[in-house]
Every structure is written in C-alpha cells, then in structure tokens.
Automatic annotation (TrEMBL):
Residue ranges of every copy of the Ig-like domain listed in the record: 24-125
Keyword Signal: yes
Entry keyword set: Immunoglobulin domain, Signal
InterPro entries xrefs: Ig-like_dom, Ig-like_dom_sf, Ig-like_fold, Ig_sub, Immunoglobulin_dom
Protein name: Ig-like domain-containing protein
Signal peptide boundaries: 1-29
Length: 149
C-alpha cells in the first residue's frame, strides 16, 4: 500500500538529494571538432562546485584518462568566480598548441573535489585532418610519402 506521502516531507527529501548531487558538476556541449594538422584547438570546460562540500577542486582535460599537462603541447588557463553563497564557478580552457595525429580521439573534462567526489563532462571528439609527411631514408636515397587523412 502506497498511502499518502506528505508534500512537505517529499520536498525536503528531494532538496536533500539534490544537495548531494550539486557538490560538483561539469558543463559543456558534446561535439565533434575537425581540425587541421599543425593548427591549434581549444577545449572549454566549466565546473560549478560547492566550496564547503567540495573543498579544493582540481579540473583537468583528459584523453584516454590521461591528464593533458605537458607544457610543451598544452596551454591551460583557469579563471574562477564566486556565484553567491558557497557556489563557485571555474572555467578551464586547454589549448592543444600544435595538433598532430595522436590528438585524434575522445577528450573529456574531469572535476575532482578534495572531499573525493568527482564529475566528468560530455565527450568531445577531435578529428585531425591534413597531410602527414613521412621521410624515408635508405642507402643514401631519400623518399617522401604524403598521407592524406
């Protein structure tokens, strides 16, 4: 028997559950980006979190669950604003400086709280297009092979 459930109690329960879910969230649109080899592309990530419940937050872009942190390949800028109450909003922009064949694939932004909670955003797929030059040397002969992707 279901019986009746007082609306006030339901709203309190719903509010309690929604507070658990809003410790940290990552927001940006899922999409596919086609980019020319050798050019750059910027990945934008927006994370909102409750400072009291999350503590310190680490927001980073991942490719195959590996953080994009090599300063020779990536430039990451971070900005953060206070949204009122305990809510903070962090924007992380990671630029892949010179796109190569290894950058084809799926990228995802992850925000991890000091308290242990984490959230991931949608997948952004990057398709690298353009020609690759392969230099082949053998017996004092040099050949060039162009691959079109």
């Amino acid at each position: 028997m279901w019986g009746t459930f007082p609306l006030k109690r339901f709203l309190h329960l719903f509010h309690s559950l929604s507070n658990v879910l809003d410790i940290v969230e990552v927001l940006y649109a899922a999409r596919t980006i086609s980019v020319s080899r050798g050019s750059s592309v910027t990945l934008p990530c927006n994370a909102s979190y409750n400072l009291n419940r999350c503590g310190l937050v680490h927001v980073v872009w991942l490719q195959n669950n590996v953080e994009l942190v090599d300063p020779d390949r990536y430039l990451t800028t971070v900005s953060e604003i206070h949204k009122g109450g305990n809510t903070r909003h962090r924007q992380v922009l990671t630029e892949i400086l010179k796109v190569g064949a290894n950058d084809t694939g799926a990228f995802q932004c992850k925000a991890e709280c000091g308290s242990g909670e984490s959230a991931k955003g949608h997948t952004i797929n990057i398709n690298v297009q353009g020609k690759a030059l392969i230099k082949i040397q053998s017996n004092q002969q040099v050949s060039f092979l162009y691959l079109y992707m």
